[in-house]
Design goal:
Length: 293
């Protein structure tokens, strides 16, 4: 094992420990996928903590040694847009919440340059299938090039809420929405899982187009959906998955608190009541458990 391999294995252990991940397959994926393959030649611009007013956003690595990338840090993809390859421990926690199995069919919306798509591909293995989507044509092309060694991955350019890629065991949305898109719910197989960040705009953020909220896990439960929050999240907005009216209601719900009590997603029409944490057109996040399957 050379120094770079050793750094990647140590990184995998640190990331998974920070994220409280116990999955051997996910730990092995972080240990084997070369992050530098997806981020181009160094030196790199990295973000070690959230910026504060008056401080710079990024620092530049001392040189082009890829070992700089094997830390729990964000790395700039496009610094002019403040677009980053996300924090590994956060992504590890979210991917772990998907409960992936060998052979699963997965949709990854907002794949960026493809690093975390490769992690997903390693977890589901050669018998699985990943459809990776990004609305940014340049990012999708970069991901397509980077992901060539993983034949189980297909990269598509477009709107991940409108492109029908068929039934899925898991859907991972890596951009902030105000609501789950109907197609995502419709395409979940029995026992399927959807992970989607529901966010509201951050007033006075250091850069535009970023929202704050929570990463929501939705799982099919018979003809209904279980739901629970996985973690807080700050993330760029998802194109065409934002509704101003729903965002206003979501902001009010976050401000009231009690999000940890959410147990189900209801899509059947019903009157708003005490068990509705967020009652919005087309869906409700409820404190009621899902009906028994």
């Amino acid at each position: 094992m050379d120094d770079r391999d050793a750094a990647r294995h140590a990184y995998a252990e640190t990331v998974c420990a920070t994220a409280n991940v116990c999955s051997p397959a996910l730990r092995a994926a972080f240990a084997c996928v070369a992050r530098e393959r997806f981020l181009g030649p160094g030196p790199w611009q990295v973000m070690r903590s959230l910026p504060t007013p008056g401080e710079g956003i990024y620092e530049t690595t001392a040189d082009a040694d890829p070992r700089h990338l094997y830390a729990d840090i964000l790395v700039a993809i496009d610094p002019a847009r403040y677009l980053n390859n996300g924090q590994p421990s956060a992504l590890a926690r979210w991917i772990d919440a998907l409960d992936l199995c060998t052979g699963d069919r997965v949709l990854h919306v907002g794949c960026g340059v493809g690093y975390y798509t490769a992690i997903l591909a390693e977890v589901v293995g050669p018998l699985g299938h990943i459809t990776a989507i990004d609305i940014d044509a340049d990012l999708a092309q970069r991901a397509r090039t980077h992901l060539a060694p993983w034949p189980q991955v297909e990269v598509v350019t477009g709107d991940g809420g409108q492109l029908d890629t068929g039934p899925c065991d898991a859907i991972f949305v890596n951009a902030g929405a105000t609501h789950p898109r109907p197609l995502w719910l419709e395409r979940l197989r029995p026992r399927g899982r959807l992970l989607v960040p529901l966010t509201v705009n951050i007033d006075g953020a250091p850069f535009a187009g970023v929202g704050w909220g929570g990463m929501l896990k939705i799982a099919t439960s018979g003809d209904a959906f279980a739901a629970q929050w996985v973690s807080p999240v700050g993330i760029f907005h998802c194109a065409d998955a934002r509704d101003p009216g729903v965002e206003r209601r979501l902001r009010e719900a976050f401000e009231r608190g009690g999000w940890e009590a959410v147990r189900s997603l209801r899509v059947m029409s019903h009157a708003a009541g005490e068990t509705c944490w967020l009652h919005a057109p087309g869906f409700c996040l409820s404190t009621l458990p899902p009906p028994a399957a």
